[in-house]
Amino acid sequence: MLLKKQSVVVETHLKTYSVIDPMITSTKNSASIDLGTNTCLLLVQNLETILHDESNVVRLGQGVDLTKKINPEAMERTFQCLQKYAAVVRSFGLEPSQVIAVGTAQARDAENAEFFFNKIKNELGFEFKVLSGDEEANATFIGAALPGMDPSKITVMDIGGGSTELVQSSLGKSLNIGAVRMSERYLKSDPVTDEEFWKCESAIDESLQEMKSVINTSNDFVAVAGTAVTLAMLQLGITEFDRNKIDGFEMTRGDAHRLVEELKWRSIEERKIMPGMEPKRADVILAGALIFWRAMDVLGFEKVLISTRGLRYGVLKAGLNR
Known about the structure:
Elements: E1 7-11, E2 14-18, E3 29-35, E4 39-46, E5 49-57, H1 64-67, H2 72-91, E6 100-103, H3 105-109, H4 113-124, E7 128-130, H5 133-144, E8 154-159, E9 164-168, E10 171-175, H6 179-185, H7 194-212, E11 220-224, H8 226-236, H9 243-246, E12 250-252, H10 253-264, H11 268-272, H12 285-299, E13 303-306, H13 311-318
Parallel strand pairs: 3-6, 6-7, 8-11, 11-13
Antiparallel strand pairs: 1-2, 2-5, 3-4, 4-5, 8-9, 9-10, 12-13
Helix pairs in contact: 5-13, 6-12, 7-12, 8-12, 10-12
């Protein structure tokens, strides 16, 4: 195999990077794809060394909450992204069929998900497994812990586009509240109205109530995925993804509330130009931030630690579709 030269390319709000050590051989490389309701993420590792980490907003779950079907435009956006990912994994000596590829909430909800994934398998070679809510929660938990964290003493929150996973060592639960789903259901005006905002907040609180009595608030609260990373970047005031600054960054409940209020009064176009905002996430970030803040408030956490890891790391460790 020819070794790639070190490269750095900026993609969406995450920095796509590849690092090849001449001592690393292709036989040890492994890769995963986390295809969510909003984003499609690719991770390539060699043992514990990250070789390539990329995120693109594809919005596969566009309209799925209402129609129960993936629409053709969303399929095409996702296909184009996965076509690029196929070339990336081959550059690391892997075939698409060797990649652990998983779908989440939008695939659980969509009646035509099987048709779409069959097309992907036949034309690109990626074999997707649609995770159950419990599988998604558990894999997220496995992948979220940062070096030095004790998994038995953390509670992990993953706010996705279609669902939010809350999990700790003794339990895991997937709730049907996600940034895309709640935006499409409630936050339809631009900027949102007070009535829309309050109805969305009430629905989120109602969903979170079932977890209130079982979540251990003495644990460290860890948040993963795009909403959490974006809020950390907004709080830090950084315009480019920097894993070293974001991993382990602490946000308070007050920080989260302030960001929600700041996002609430802005139009989508105004949100797009906020330092640290990925423009394609601007229309759903308010709902994501609202879930983030309400989870802290309803469950009783005063602070949360941000992790850039999560599901794509966890499925590699668990080997979920092998």
